Amino acid sequence: MRVGTVREIKNHEYRVGLTPESARELIVHGHEVWVESGAGGGIGATDRDYEAQGAVIKPDAKAVFDGCEMIVKVKEPQPEECLMLRAGQVLYTYLHLAPDPAQTAALVKSGVTAIAYETVTGPGQNGGLTLPLLKPMSQVAGRMSIQAGATALEKAHGGRGVLLGGVPGVLPGRVLVIGGGVVGFNAAQMAVGLGADVTILDRDPEVLERLGIHFESRAKTRFSNRANISAMLCEAELVIGAVLVAGAAAPKLVTREMLGCMKPGAVLVDVAIDQGGCFETSHPTTHADPTFVVDGIVHYCVANMPGAVARTSTYALNNVTLPHALKIAELGWKAALRRDPHLAAGLNVSGGKITYEAVAHDLGLDYTPVAEILR
Q1: Are the CB atoms for 61 and 7 separated by under 8 Å?
Q2: Bridge partners of 201?
Q3: Per residue in 89-145, pLDDT tens?
Q4: Which one of 81, 91, 255, 273 is at 20 to 30 Å from 110 when CA atoms are compared?
Q5: How many C-beta neighbours within 10 Å does residue 361 have?
Q6: Of 127, 87, 92, 143, whose CA–CA distance to 271 is shortest?
């Protein structure tokens, strides 16, 4: 199969779908790899680095889209990229379709087969499921959320002027993490490491128990309900929104009304913004203009946080996406999905049909089961 990757064009997105090493793995397995010139610049990978591994450099994205059977990206295709997609082609990338009707409509119109990293599953404990292609970026975003929040708290950036770790004789900043999954756990780790006063909210008793055992007295845990969220918001200087419903729009756990009790200059970091955000007052921002203020509360809602640490993020992402890319290239997408139900869970759009139920539900569109597509 001819596999291609292009330079990401989303605002301040520096990651790339395939590293030179990943390109080499595909080539060794008998496939051809086309790379848009300059695609790897954000991670320090030159065209010569790709050529040294056997990849073919193309002058622009259109050449790659036109000539390749599978496109491997990082972020969802932008409008001009959607116009280059076609029926029979495979798009393998993050999509986050539930809060994005325009992109969904464009993918449906193109006829492309779109496999979303964020809904590919994996086996978990006690028969549960994990999201292995989302996990490394959730780890990065969770850790970055504390860095970003700490910066936004500085007075020069519009914040309250609080140092999260405090100093001797001055209390540390209070951090509230809503959601104890991968993002929340990594955010709490960073906040605890800085010496902040950390509380984590979650609805799953097993998650709360696991967090309690791990952090012991270094972080507090509470059950997540409206009353506890409201009470903790009033005390917090930094709030991390770390809630995920796989493939679906994030629930709005913090309303505008709740902001009324918060301290002026407190900061909300909405890591769920890719799925529409878990704060009512959130809207997507970029690394170029990351924050805005609502009712005196600073909001940080960058939709591609890991793009700022592109090299770390790209290599972490390729570690988990490449095995599936190899499988698709080797078998073809239909055979690969028939053989691997976890990969099949990643199919969101195919042949003009929505194949992920949560996306169809949230956007009010018709749903076609994956099994029907594969039949």
Answers
A1: yes
A2: 178, 222
A3: 999 999 999 999 999 999 999 999 999 999 999 998 877 899 999 999 999 999 999
A4: 273
A5: 15
A6: 143
How many structural domains does the chain have? 2
From 202, 274, 340, 362, active-site residue: 274
Class of residue 290 by CB neighbours under 10 A (exposed 0-12, middle 13-18, buried 19+): buried
Query: CA 347, 348, 351: angle at the middle one, nearest 5?
Result: 90
The token pair at 59 is: 């002058």
Is residue 51 pLDDT above 80, yes or no?
yes
The one-letter amino acid code at 341 reads: P
What per-residue confidence (pLDDT) applies to 17?
98
Distance CA 66, CA 209 (A): 51
Name the residue among 277, 269, 275, 258 with its Cα closest to residue 299. Answer: 269
Per the CB < 8 A criterion, the answer to whether 6 and 36 are in contact is: yes
The domain in which residue 188 lies consists of: 135-303
123, 131 contact by CB (below 8 A)? no
- 130 found inside a domain: no
In sequence order, the 6+-apart residues with CB closer than 8 A to the CB of 167 are: none
Annotated catalytic residue 287: no
d(CA 240, CA 267): 9
Listed residues 271, 303, 335: the one ending a domain: 303
What is the model's pLDDT at position 31?
98
Q: How confident is the model at residue 247 (pLDDT cuts 50, 70, 90)?
A: confident
CATH number at residue 252: 3.40.50.720
DSSP β-bridge partners for residue 241 = 178, 270
Asked whether the predicted pLDDT for residue 1 surpasses 80, the reply is: yes
* Token output for 203: 């609805």
* Helix 135-152 / helix 182-193 crossing angle, nearest 10 deg: 40
The answer to pTM > 0.85 is: yes
Verify whether residue 96 is a known catalytic residue.
yes
Summarised one tens digit per residue, pLDDT across range 260-296 is 999 999 999 999 999 999 999 999 999 999 999 999 9
Q: Would you state the pLDDT for residue 218?
A: 97
Catalytic residue among 96, 100, 299, 340: 96
Identify the CA nearest to 92 among candidates 70, 61, 110, 111.
70
